[in-house]
Amino acid sequence: MFKKTLLAVSMTAACLASASSLAAEKVDLLIKNATVLTMDQDKTVYDNGLVAVRDNKIFAVTDGSDLAEYKAKQTIDADGDIVMPGLINTHTHVSMTVFRSMADDVPDRLHRYIFPLEKKLVSRDMVRIGAQLGNVEMVKGGVTTYADMYYFEDEVAKTVDQIGMRAVLGETVIKFPVADAANAEEGIMYAVNFIEEYKNHPRITPAFAPHAPYTNTTETLQTITKLSLQYDVPVMIHLAESKRENQVIAERSGGKSPVEYMAQIGALTPNLVGAHVINVSDSDIELLKKHDVGIAHNMSANIKSAKGVSPALKMFDDGLRIGLGTDGPMSGNTISTIDEFNQVAKVHKLVNKDRAAMPPIKVIEMATMGAARALHMEDKIGSLETGKLADIIVVDTKAPNMVPVYNPYSALVYSAYAANVKHTIVDGKVLMQDRNMLTVDETAIRNEALKFADTVRKTVVESGEIVQ
Amino acid sequence: MFKKTLLAVSMTAACLASASSLAAEKVDLLIKNATVLTMDQDKTVYDNGLVAVRDNKIFAVTDGSDLAEYKAKQTIDADGDIVMPGLINTHTHVSMTVFRSMADDVPDRLHRYIFPLEKKLVSRDMVRIGAQLGNVEMVKGGVTTYADMYYFEDEVAKTVDQIGMRAVLGETVIKFPVADAANAEEGIMYAVNFIEEYKNHPRITPAFAPHAPYTNTTETLQTITKLSLQYDVPVMIHLAESKRENQVIAERSGGKSPVEYMAQIGALTPNLVGAHVINVSDSDIELLKKHDVGIAHNMSANIKSAKGVSPALKMFDDGLRIGLGTDGPMSGNTISTIDEFNQVAKVHKLVNKDRAAMPPIKVIEMATMGAARALHMEDKIGSLETGKLADIIVVDTKAPNMVPVYNPYSALVYSAYAANVKHTIVDGKVLMQDRNMLTVDETAIRNEALKFADTVRKTVVESGEIVQ
């Protein structure tokens, strides 16, 4: 009798094992017990769901009832934490981290301080050191993809390749001499060489970054437009950011707005991503929509510089391609998109005089799918859906500022900050686990940045060139 | 020869030891190698300074050149991190943490949702559980003193006593039935009993908290004013917060503003602390100044509810007693003052159309000495000066979002968030060290809050009473 029972048990176990192995889906990474915000078309949320990753792609996103069907090389138990698409920062100047907290509130800062500062201090080393620091900040803040505009973008690319992030990197073109080009023509050549070098990189999209309409000639903007269509790469530009820009462009174009001017010269294309887009009329917005232009909304930097509030909510509601950006660390000053959430939600409520305006779910949309759409990458990233690239973050819901979570979108927007991000995964690879960086040496990166900051102090702060 | 040298060395060491012990100042806690922001009258900053604590008071704050003169029981090496006065949150409803992220953006929320929700769910347990969670959040965010307005404040007091924070606790008085009083008279009695019980507590200041002018009668407000002067305790009130309040008070008083009405009935006294103070004219501001009223400025909650922006910068510049508050966790939604910094600086720039408006040093002043002045506690807390109570925080400058620091005020305001606070000290006692809570069990507190949140879900969320 005893033997029989034992035999029966053994057989059952064997059958189960056999059935299980028959059904088992082998995956590389499994995140279970998760509050999954998929950010798919229907905004599906799974309370106790799972996300399975095979190679660098999302293999499955489910309600968790099929948990037993997966056999994973690595399993993360989210223990109820929020699992969502990695954040996409649509606009920054990552290398400027090394200048952060300098001369923050001086008037006419770009022309009086930043351009001269950059002329003196931008170098390959500065770009590399600043990007390494900024990459760590972003990964620790849940940013998995970012769009950058700066100089020596091939140096930024090396740091992105090393840390394992995804990025759209725009080489700056501007009409006056800068660190890596004597003029716009040299800037274009630098960009073309960079594009040739990186056009087949699996995680890096090289791009042109004409600084702004008013800091480039019509001819330069047209040449870049033509080349961008030829290479099929993005063009990133500061657009309709300041009143000064509107004045200069109106003088140049016989009274046109920056957006109208760009349309007139043929520079509004689906490859264009405009950053800021503050001073625009309803007809400008229609033009941007018609030409399928992407838009980076940088609330924090725009209000810090008192430039005003972009009609981003209207553009979002009108169906334009718009996502959140942080602007650079001399502007924002932090570069994790999560630090924008709070301000984006609240300032749009303030200016619309409506507490229901810009609800949290729209903010999260603008940080994920909206940002993916702004960069024309919505087929690859921005939501947790089968077949998309595995860019995923886990947000701690047990930190005291996050308890309790009745509404995960509200908790993310009104309560979370960068340090609440627990794990960051890009292209199926865990870059940060339990807040520890796995692919780079954070301490060495910080120390190199601090050493460079000493050079900055000696060069411009102690001489009194930069007023604090 | 060898022996002689050895003897000489020994003698020198003995002499040094003797000299040292002669000069040694015995202290309990020494924080060295610190970037000390004293927030004293002259805004003295020491780049490599020290703060020495004896018992519960600051014994010395220096440039660090006298480091060898102290013999401390405990030493914290700040390694260049920022050491500053503990933050003072001038306005919150700490126990409401258990309702956080619920129905955030619904119109007329206070009357349609919050009051009915509270009627159903406020209890001694709820107040205790919510306060414990909120206390942990605040200590971990660098808040050392807070001002609270809620029910069952004796329960809040027990949690404050246990964790070791400092607080001004105001027992609510309101004209309709609430959890701990059937009417305003009972509320006043509850408050008086609470004040009697806690009036000699070393870290707790009991207070009256009439909810608002429009939710109390003139008689109630006058009775409370009289009693507050008799007991010499603060009166905390929501003041000039909403347009509805202005309408109700205008009807009651023949067209007066809330501030004018309070002046007329004799309720503007130096004991009063008004929260929000949004809808005020220049003459209202003059009245508040004349009567030496304290003011709590809650930017984050005010813009989230689209109520508008308080003229806090004008009040600060005019010399009024004004400090930062967070409002409650259903409003703000986080309750660490550091989370306000960014928004306070930037939104005042936006509305003043001036990037130089509200510079970081003013924000830090409003979080420390300004807040101490708002609570009439500036002789005891708010700055690091010899003789003041030892409420001190250490802010990590090595987190990637904080590197580098050219200007510590800028770094705190534009880059820091709550998790950058490394150590929190209140009354000379370390409450958090390296982000670990030393006086309470954080996990047990979180679990109790999560369990209570399940009750909330069953009571009002699943029934559909609260719309998400």
UniProtKB/TrEMBL annotation, chains A, B:
Pfam families: Amidohydro_1 (PF01979). Residues 82-430 form the Amidohydrolase-related domain. Gene3D superfamilies: Metal-dependent hydrolases, Urease, subunit C, domain 1. The keyword Hydrolase applies. It comes from the Bacteria. The keyword Lyase does not apply. InterPro entries: Amidohydro-rel, Metal-dep_hydrolase_composite, Metal_Hydrolase, MTA/SAH_deaminase. GO terms for molecular function: hydrolase activity, acting on carbon-nitrogen (but not peptide) bonds. Residues 1-23 form the signal peptide. Keywords: Hydrolase, Signal. PANTHER family: AMIDOHYDROLASE-RELATED DOMAIN-CONTAINING PROTEIN, AMINOHYDROLASE SSNA-RELATED. Belongs to the metallo-dependent hydrolases superfamily. ATZ/TRZ family. This is Amidohydrolase.
